[in-house]
């Protein structure tokens, strides 16, 4: 959970929440559903370990996909973000 929350400080959006108030990069229900179905272990989708359904307290077991890497500014583009028309990274 700490890693998830710290990533917000660097620009990573929640990938489990639809943008209702303009603060989550225009995330649509379609994109949230896509992330849930295809990136269950992505750290911005869930802090749970999808295999044990627990929150590991001693290490981070979640993945960081191209979606989050794009919003952190680690890569210049993200095909999935473009496909679903979510807002561009601020980086």
Q: Overview of this structure, please?
A:
The structure is a single chain. With 91 residues, the protein is mostly helical. 34% of the residues lie in helices and 0% in strands. The two termini are 24 Å apart. The model has no long low-confidence stretch (mean pLDDT 87).
Distance between the termini: 24 Å
**Shape descriptor:** globular
What is the makeup of the main sheet?
none
- Runs with pLDDT <50, length 5+? none
Number of strands: 0
Question: What is the C-alpha radius of gyration, as a whole number of Å?
Answer: 13 Å
The overall pLDDT, averaged over residues, is 87
Annotation keywords:
single chain, 91 residues
Give a short summary of the structure.
The protein has 91 residues and is mainly alpha-helical. It has four helices and no strands.
Q: What is the strand and helix layout of this fold?
A:
Blueprint: H1 2-9, H2 29-38, H3 66-72, H4 79-84
């Amino acid at each position: 959970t700490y890693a998830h929350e710290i990533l917000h400080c660097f620009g990573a959006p929640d990938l489990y929440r639809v943008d209702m108030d303009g603060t989550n990069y225009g995330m649509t229900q379609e994109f949230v559903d896509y992330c849930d179905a295809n990136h269950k272990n992505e750290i911005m989708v869930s802090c749970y370990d999808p295999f044990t359904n627990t929150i590991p307290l001693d290490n981070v077991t979640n993945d960081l996909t191209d979606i989050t890497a794009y919003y952190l500014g680690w890569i210049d583009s993200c095909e999935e973000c473009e496909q679903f028309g979510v807002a561009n990274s601020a980086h």
